[in-house]
């Protein structure tokens, strides 16, 4: 029987993982980091040689900088000591449990990274996350978001072997709950480009956005787009972000607007096209049949599905070329059908019923598609 080791970094993760073990045939154990065994110091040299310490430390320090926290020499020293200590505990855990499978939520946390680096040869992985489509769950053997296992080759979708209906019902998106009560909706311009902000703290921005490092840079790009093309640009701040942008609001004018009170679905559907780093709004735009221009590393950066720009000059050039973009409607339909029917697991984890738990278990055990 396959033994699975579920690493729980938060209460909700542990509750869901325990339900999987208690209500399906999955066999394993849920372990939060505080319950990892004490290290065996004789393992130190073997463990130290298997970790990419500079990368791990720099990523955590970058996260601290984004959050406007100190990342000086003392912090780096303490971080290195913490990581060495936790790496030794992770190795002790793996030696004790000898799992066939490691299971993580998201997988970007430094403790998850340590466990992945120390996993023995042949040990499989699964990564959980909120589903890519409404009311779904992600369970992926490679990672989540840009690191996931969704095929990136356009030919896969153009030669898709399953029948896909041409006319599908327009989905209704699930609104994200804002941190605070927002402003009233604005009257939208007749034509505009929609640029949704993302959360600067999120790994999607920190790790997978090579040339736009934060939303102030995103706003500056929108300013340039409006100035050099004559297009109207409408922004919406991320509803869960802790960051505020009073100085950006002061730079708005009739062709550069914020619409924080408007529904995202309305902004997508009313826009000419959507510009995003790599956010869920980009995927939602594809669901709603709206052209998308990506700026970062996104798993849906597929030729014919979206347009992509690696610098500001390319953004301006592509905006001027719109609507003459070489996008393929059949590819879009097949891509979304693959996500819906073969990749995403139906049912959200937050309100999972017995059937949802069994679909997840089937996926992890390699049983029939769920």
TrEMBL record:
<dbReference type="Pfam" id="PF05159">
    <property type="entry name" value="Capsule_synth"/>
</dbReference>
<protein>
    <submittedName>
        <fullName>Capsular biosynthesis protein</fullName>
    </submittedName>
</protein>
<dbReference type="InterPro" id="IPR007833">
    <property type="entry name" value="Capsule_polysaccharide_synth"/>
</dbReference>
<dbReference type="InterPro" id="IPR043148">
    <property type="entry name" value="TagF_C"/>
</dbReference>
